[in-house]
């Protein structure tokens, strides 16, 4: 089972954990991506995330299916936030349940790696010297 | 394949969306593939060639190859290198 979303709302990580918990699972693994203040000595003030909403949700559904197919995972919940995020806020959260911990760790790791690789979401970093789109030649 | 003298709408995101607009219309005068559409975009926005070339192209919410043919009513998007997470 999977639950994915791209949302403007604050992410309720506890809700994701409760959603994946299962009486036949002995492991729940979570990942949170949070807004970092300093990167290589440069201060970030805040981030703005933009998504191609429909495609991003579709790609996250696909990643959820991949996790359930490739690993012995039972449930996955993954939510990415968009809009303005301040330092320390949760930009992305993933919870994966599995009968055994190895699969939960692998599934969770796989999910965040795939999200960062190809889900159409972009961040614009606002710093003390101005703003720029991260990783983008534009 | 699309008909003669029609327009294709292309969604743009991130820095490219800010630079050229979040939805641009490209007139096309014949059947067109994804790679031909990319060349049309570059000739319309030559100053953004580098960023247009760095994009993946999605048709109907799926990444596609250069050879994919564009059909009437397809939702086309230029996807700059992603940076979520």
UniProtKB/TrEMBL annotation, chain A:
The keyword Transferase applies. Transmembrane segments: none annotated. GO terms for molecular function: molybdopterin synthase activity. Its EC number is 2.8.1.12. It catalyses: 2 [molybdopterin-synthase sulfur-carrier protein]-C-terminal-Gly-aminoethanethioate + cyclic pyranopterin phosphate + H2O = molybdopterin + 2 [molybdopterin-synthase sulfur-carrier protein]-C-terminal Gly-Gly + 2 H(+). Keywords: Molybdenum cofactor biosynthesis, Transferase. One of its GO terms (biological process) is Mo-molybdopterin cofactor biosynthetic process. Pathway: Cofactor biosynthesis; molybdopterin biosynthesis. Pfam families: MoaE. It is an enzyme of class 2 (transferase). Heterotetramer of 2 MoaD subunits and 2 MoaE subunits. Also stable as homodimer. The enzyme changes between these two forms during catalysis. Belongs to the MoaE family. This is Molybdopterin synthase catalytic subunit.
UniProtKB/TrEMBL annotation, chain B:
GO terms for biological process: Mo-molybdopterin cofactor biosynthetic process. GO terms for molecular function: nucleotide binding. GO terms for cellular component: molybdopterin adenylyltransferase complex. It holds the Pfam family ThiS. The keyword Glycoprotein does not apply. InterPro entries: Beta-grasp_dom_sf (IPR012675), MOCS2A (IPR044672), Mopterin_synth/thiamin_S_b (IPR016155), ThiS/MoaD-like (IPR003749). CDD domains: Ubl_MoaD. The keyword Lipid metabolism does not apply. Pathway: Cofactor biosynthesis; molybdopterin biosynthesis. Keywords: Molybdenum cofactor biosynthesis, Nucleotide-binding. Belongs to the MoaD family. Involved in sulfur transfer in the conversion of molybdopterin precursor Z to molybdopterin. PANTHER family: MOLYBDOPTERIN SYNTHASE SULFUR CARRIER SUBUNIT. Heterotetramer of 2 MoaD subunits and 2 MoaE subunits. Forms a stable heterotetrameric complex of 2 MoaD and 2 MoeB during adenylation of MoaD by MoeB. During catalysis MoaD shuttles between the two heterotetrameric complexes. This is Molybdopterin synthase sulfur carrier subunit.
């Amino acid at each position: 089972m999977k639950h994915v979303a791209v949302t403007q709302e604050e992410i309720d990580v506890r809700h994701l954990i409760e959603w994946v918990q299962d009486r036949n699972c002995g492991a729940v693994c979570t990942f949170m991506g949070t807004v970092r203040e300093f990167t290589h000595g440069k201060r970030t003030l805040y981030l703005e995330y933009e998504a191609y909403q429909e495609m991003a949700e579709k790609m996250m559904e696909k990643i959820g299916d991949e996790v359930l197919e490739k690993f012995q995972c039972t449930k996955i919940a993954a939510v990415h936030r968009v809009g303005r995020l301040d330092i320390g806020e949760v930009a992305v959260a993933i919870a994966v349940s599995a009968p055994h911990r190895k699969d939960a760790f692998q599934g969770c790791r796989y999910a965040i790696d795939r999200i960062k690789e190809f889900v159409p979401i972009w961040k614009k970093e606002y710093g003390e010297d101005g703003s720029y789109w991260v990783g983008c030649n534009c | 394949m699309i008909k003669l003298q029609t327009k294709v709408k292309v969604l743009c995101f991130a820095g490219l969306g800010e630079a050229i607009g979040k939805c641009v219309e490209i007139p096309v005068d014949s059947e067109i593939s994804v790679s031909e559409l990319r060349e049309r975009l570059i000739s319309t926005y030559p100053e953004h060639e580098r960023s247009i070339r760095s994009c993946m192209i999605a048709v109907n919410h799926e990444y596609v190859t250069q050879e994919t043919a564009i059909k009437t009513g397809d939702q086309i998007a230029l996807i700059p290198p992603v940076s979520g997470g």
